[in-house]
């Protein structure tokens, strides 16, 4: 049984590392901000989750699981938030192609100054 769990941990580590690598390549290769944000958040978070699961399987200790769960939860909470803030700032700077947006919910806020209360 220990060998099966070790092999599963090895496979999960490799899959997580591959996802993290594809996230890094995507951040470097994609041209626009939304594509880069997608590459920076989705595969990176899943890769981290797989690596944490592999560590928990490999060490087989409840204190390790108790340490890894908050790490995953914090990553799940902060990755979308940081991507949202970077995307909004890119929109405000004008570095996002507005023609490629299907729905532009911020168009009205762009016309109204932030201090105008609207």
TrEMBL record:
Membrane spanning residue stretches: 6-28, 65-83
Keywords: Membrane, Transmembrane, Transmembrane helix
Keyword Ligase among record annotations: no
Listed InterPro entries: PhaG_MnhG_YufB (IPR005133)
PANTHER family: ANTIPORTER SUBUNIT MNHG2-RELATED
UniProt family annotation: Belongs to the CPA3 antiporters (TC 2.A.63) subunit G family.
Protein name per UniProt: Monovalent cation/H(+) antiporter subunit G
Origin species: Microbacterium yannicii
């Amino acid at each position: 049984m220990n060998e099966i769990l070790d092999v599963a941990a090895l496979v999960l580590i490799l899959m997580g590392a591959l996802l993290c690598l594809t996230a890094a390549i995507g951040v470097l290769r994609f041209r626009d901000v939304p594509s880069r944000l997608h590459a920076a958040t989705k595969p990176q978070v899943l890769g981290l989750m797989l690596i944490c699961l592999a560590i928990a399987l490999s060490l087989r200790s409840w204190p390790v699981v108790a340490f890894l769960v908050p790490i995953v939860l914090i990553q799940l909470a902060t990755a979308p938030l940081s991507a949202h803030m970077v995307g909004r700032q890119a929109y405000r700077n004008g570095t996002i192609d507005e023609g490629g947006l299907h729905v532009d919910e911020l168009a009205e806020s762009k016309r109204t100054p932030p201090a105008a209360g609207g």
